[in-house]
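Slide 14.
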Amino acid sequence: MIRIVAVDDEQPALRRVGKLLEAFEEVRVCGLFDKSPAFLEYVLTDPEPIDLVLLDMEMPSLHGMELARRIRGCRPEIHIAFLTAYEEFAREAFDVEALDYLLKPVMKEDLSRMINRFVKRSGRDGNRDHQPERGVEVQSFGPFTVTANTGDQIRFRNSKGKELLAYLHHHRGKPVSKTQIMEDIWYGRDAERTQANLHSTVYQLRKDLEAYGMSDLIEQTKIAGGSYCLKWSPSYDDVVSYEDEVARYNQTLSLTHALKAVRYYGGGYLTGSGYGWAAPRQAELELSYAGLLEAIVDTYVRQQRYDIALNPMRKWAELFPLSGRIHAKAIALLLLMNRESDAKAYHEFVMETLDRPEDLAEIDYALLSADPSLLF
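Slide 15: predicted structure.
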């Protein structure tokens, strides 16, 4: 599947391109944007991969060439093609290694040629029979999901089977005693009934996995009261990918790795699951995520790319709604963007929300207005 996003400030043209793209079976249209800032916010923060972006050249807020350069700087894996009514930008398009240069009105044949070029450049031959078999894929950011090597998302007969698999995966192949499992997943329940629940849940989970060709993954030992462990090696694990990018960022301080890590994190570890045993790991990952957001915001502000800094700033403030320091930086950023009315409104809202004197002292509006760049 080729995941495509289109950006064009002319909505009729944008809708037309979207309809034409939807006619191709191998294409998935992931988004249609009529404003460059909204697209930038999406491409910098959304964890879903994008294969190809179609950019209009002449747009009021940000020219297509500048938008392409920004994409190249932060997400070089994305291919770029241009949509335009003008021929004079064709030479510039080669500077950003554009895949294609389509003149409006765009026809289906133009898009077919562009897709064929993408397939050749990306090394996808479109023949599934010659593609290597995919492995098991695990996602723990957001709701816990497992995709089998067939490409099917595993469906669980009951919620406890899904939780048990998430729990064992959480322990990364280490044996966990039955006593610990029962305490973490069935806390406070009758011991005899809980043990029966554990055995039936393990049995059903094994059946669920076997239905997707995944056998002998849950090992059991009878030493010291018994334990269970999960023996698998997923081809993709979003938490592992996140931590790899965090490590690369810490080594290189390259913003590309920080942005990739933020996309992996999404809404957080096992979001909405209600798994109490996951809380320490959730807090650990959230702390590293907050550090990445701060680094991204500070870097963009130093580069005077205030519009792009605004979204990670908002996410950071949402993580710590009672932090005077973070709210002060958010107000300072709005002032740097010359959005004084928004900065004042934000300041008034925060002053009503915070009640600790030390927090209020950090958001003195007069001091922030004097030189907002000092906070970065």
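Speaker note: The chain has 16 helices and eleven strands.
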